[in-house]
Amino acid sequence: MDNGSMMTEERLMDEAKGVLHNAYSPYSGIKVGAALLTSSGNIHTGVNVENASYGLTICAERNVIPTAITQGMKKIKFLVVTGGTPEPISPCGACRQVISEFSDDETIIILANKDRKYNIWSVNDLLPYSFGPKHL
Which of 9, 15, 61, 106 is an active site residue? Predict the structure, then answer.
């Protein structure tokens, strides 16, 4: 990865970690923050928002993506998901499908923990053999 990408990674990890304190997670106790960079250069952030009716919980990834779409995003360039966890966080299946809908082969996904331990993934790594718009 080139130096420009490394600077983007670092900035997005800072953004995702910076919103962790806003997460609403009274049931699991796991705070998750996400930062997304669009192809037009805009950065958006989101956090998980739990609900007493667990199925209504909104993951950070499914919080930040619609926010970015509302502002005109068509495709995700970079996505960082950070958890207040000892190891890098991993998106749930529903989040992987939503990430896939707005990603392409160029999208870089970084899964991190609060201490900046991270792994870099492609959408195909996260959701191999996915179903998407090309199948319709």
Answer: 61
